[in-house]
Amino acid sequence: MDTAKIQLITFKSYGDDEGVLIPLESEKNIPFEIKRVYYIHTVKAGAVRGKHAHYQLAQILIAISGCVEVTCESKGEKHTYILDSRDKGLLIEGMVWHTMQKFSSDAILLVLANDFYNEDDYVREYDVFLEEDVK
Ligand code: TYD
């Protein structure tokens, strides 16, 4: 993937009197093949996670419990998204500097990714990100 992409996706919910179900499927409502799943929870108040970009990776972030704020920066533009609904996923693909903060105490952030964990795909230095962002 050469271009950065950020998109808020709304998933279809199946709700009835007994509850709500939201299915997530590779290459269907998730626009890539899911190769890895991880989740972040019990984040201390005031903690800021992320603070990196990726060369290639595509991920979808879903707050399956609680609420979290995600700030994305790409091509000189910065936007903050509030993930507070279980039917919302934030797609972050390619060279996007992102931070996750303001986790509520009950927040669980589920992340679906299109590749396995690979430290070589990370840009952890903000100055390096700025150089890559203008390419
Ligand atoms: P890190 O990238 O610092 O998390 P965040 O972006 O939320 O701040 O990852 C924390 C630790 O977990 C780090 O030692 C790398 C490890 N890790 C894995 O082993 N596999 C994974 O899929 C991820 C995302 C992280």
Oligomer: single chain
What does the overall shape look like? globular
Number of helices: 1
**Strand content range:** over 45%
What is the N-to-C succession of helices and strands?
A: EEEEEEEEEEEEH
Strand order of the largest sheet: 1-9-6-11-4
Secondary structural class: mainly beta
Distance from N terminus to C terminus (CA atoms, Å) equals 13 Å
What level of helicity do the residues show? under 10%
The Rg value, from CA coordinates, equals 15 Å
Uncertain parts: none
Mean pLDDT, to the nearest integer, reads: 96
Bound ligand species = thymidine-5'-diphosphate
What's the story with the biggest beta sheet? 5 strands, antiparallel
* Total beta-strand segments: 12
SSE blueprint:
Elements: E1 5-10, E2 14-16, E3 19-21, E4 36-41, E5 49-54, E6 58-65, E7 68-74, E8 77-83, E9 88-93, E10 97-101, E11 108-113, E12 122-123, H1 126-133
Antiparallel strand pairs: 1-9, 2-3, 4-11, 5-10, 5-12, 6-9, 6-11, 7-8, 7-10
